[in-house]
Every structure is written in structure tokens, then in C-alpha cells.
Amino acid sequence: RTPVREIVHDIDETTGLPSRVRGIRTNKEYREFDAIVAATDLPGIKKMLPDTFRKYEMFDKIYNLDTVPIATVQVRFDGWVTEMNDEQRMMDVSGDQSDGRGAGIDNLLYSVDTEFSCFADLALTSPGDYYKEGEGSLIQAVFDERAFSRSEEQLVEDCIKQLNDIFPSSRKLKCTWSSVTKLGQSLYREKPGQDKFRPSQATPIPNFFLAGSYTYQDYLDSMEGATRSGLMVADEIIARADGPDGIKAFAKDYTSEEARAKQLFFADMA
């Protein structure tokens, strides 16, 4: 992974606005591209965009979106937390229960009775990555900013207690492992009036595009939203590919001496 340091782009001499992107400069090299997709989270795009891009209202509005801090807690148990109907099955971690054969609810879960709005048993939803033979549930729960300042030990304790409250049978299980990860800048703050600040995937710069869950699409800031934005940005690139001013035509134009003589502008993003 190489961090982007500069987005190299042309400036229209008449308007003073960025007209096309030329390439990307990293710590190690400069590479040119026919089109660039900035697929980032909200903090990433704020850091990546050159100041000159903010002359366009669409880019400038992005900076009105605020991020929220979160704490992600993972707790592993010696049984299956979300199995509520069969106590014997809840306690059974014998043998190989990979490929989602463990007991409990294999889905993303939501609750209004906990401080974590969404959670899942990763040993069930993604057993290939998270199931561990001889162990049970691996619950991942995302706490909002109200819990961010708490110690890791307190967050783990709170997570277990609230899981016990919504799955009372899980009180018979023991936590065998835990982990806490805090992000000071995470998803954008969901409050009324935010959609008008979310940018589309196509931008005023013909060969520069945006992707990410913060962009405007059918879902909120989520994995599903990020996936949707990727599909939408692909459609936008195809739509801008052809025609006399399309991406293909411009790519061919870059072989001409006139195009190579255009003024380069290096945005300092350090």
C-alpha cells in the first residue's frame, strides 16, 4: 500500500478551475491514468482532495460532513451466544463446526436495547475467517461515541453485560478472548440535512470519480453503501468513455505534443 501524496491535474487558464486529472504522485513514483476513481472513506477523501478542487461546490460540500468516533468490540465465548432455543446446542463447541454449522443466528443483527446498534456473530457469518475450532461465538459489536472514552476493559464488560441482557441464556457462557479497536474518525454523522452534502460518483472533472459509502446512493454509510457506490461509479465511467470529449478521446489526445505541453499543477496534500 502506497499513500497518495498528490493528484496531478490541469487548471483551465480561463476559469482557474481544475479541468482534468493527469495522474497520481506517491512517495515513490508518478503514474498517469486515463481516469481516476478515488475510492475512500470520508476522512480519506478530505485528506486526498487538492485545495483547488474545493472551488467546485460539489467538492466543497463534502467538508460539511462530520465523522463520528466508534469503538469496535470483539468477544469470543465458549458457546453460541445467539442460540436461544436449545441449551445443549448452545454449549456444544465440539468437532468442526465451520462453514456456518455453529448454532445461533447467522446474520447481521440490530438492537435498540444496547449501546451497539449493530452486531454479528462472525464465527457464523464469516466462519472461513473467524471460526476457531473448539470455540463458539465471536461477537463483533460497534459502540457509538458515547462509549468512546471508556477503557477497553470497561467496554468489554459492558458488551458482555448487554449481550447477556438481550440473550439471557448466554449468561451461562464464559468469555475466552476479547479485543477493542477505537477509530476517532469513522462514518459520517447521520443527522437531518446531510444528504445535500453527499457527492455523486461523477464529478465536475470529466475523468475524476468518487466511490465510497459517504457518496450519494441508496444506502446510508455502510458496507452495502460502499458496494452500491462502486457499481454506480462503474456506470458513470462507461457513460463518459465515448464521444468527442470522452475519456477515450482524451487518452488518445495525451499522445500529442500539445497535450504534453499543458501546464501541470501539483496539489500539496502532505
Q: In summary, what is this structure?
A:
With 270 residues, the chain is an alpha+beta fold. The protein has helices at 42-48, 57-62, 87-91, 122-125, 127-130, 152-166, 223-239, 247-253, 257-260; strands spanning 4-11, 18-26, 30-32, 36-39, 70-77, 109-110, 116-121, 138-143, 175-183, 208-211, 265-266. Residues 259-270 have low confidence and may be disordered.
Which short descriptors sum up this protein?
disordered C terminus, 9 helices, elongated
Shape: elongated
Number of strands: 11
Strand content: 15-25%
Written as H for each helix and E for each strand, in order along the chain, the element string is: EEEEHHEHEEHHEHEEHHHE
- The largest sheet has its strands arranged as 6-7-8-5-9
**Poorly predicted ranges (pLDDT <50, ≥5 residues)?**
259-270
Taking the sheet with the most strands, its summary is:
5 strands, antiparallel
Q: Count the helices. How many? A: 9
Mean residue pLDDT: 88
Please estimate the helix content: 25-40%
Class of secondary structure makeup: alpha+beta
Distance from first to last alpha carbon:
17 Å
Radius of gyration computed on alpha carbons: 24 Å
Question: Strands, helices and their partners?
Answer:
Blueprint: E1 4-11, E2 18-26, E3 30-32, E4 36-39, H1 42-48, H2 57-62, E5 70-77, H3 87-91, E6 109-110, E7 116-121, H4 122-125, H5 127-130, E8 138-143, H6 152-166, E9 175-183, E10 208-211, H7 223-239, H8 247-253, H9 257-260, E11 265-266
